[in-house]
Amino acid sequence: MPDLGYLLAAVALGSVVTIALRALPFAILKPLRRSKFVAALGRWMPAGILLILAVVILRDEFVARTGHWWAVIAATAVTVVVHLVGRRRAVLSVAAGTTCYIVLINLV
Questions:
Q1: Contacting residues for 54 by C-beta, under 8 A, at least 6 apart
Q2: CB 82 within 8 A of CB 91
Q3: What is the pTM (predicted TM-score) of this model?
C-alpha cells in the first residue's frame, strides 16, 4: 500500500495537469481568433468533412447494394434538392434523403 504522501502527491499532480489542460484552450484562444489559417479552416473544414463522409458512405452503399445503385443516386438527389430548396436545413435534408432511401430499398 502506498503511503499517504505519495497518494496526495499523485492527486495534486493529476489536479494540476487537469486544470492546465482545461485552461490551455482559453489561454490560446485570443491569438487564434486573429489567425487567417484558423479562419480558413473554419470556412473549409465543415464542407471537406461532409464531402469525405458522403464519398465514403456512397462508396460503401454502391459496393454493398450493387443491384440498388439507382436508389443510392435517387436518395442523394433528394437530399441535395431538399437541402437547396429547404433553405439549407441539414436535419430536414438528411431526414428526407434517408426516408427516400429506406422507402426505395424496402419497396422495390
A1: 76
A2: no
A3: 0.59
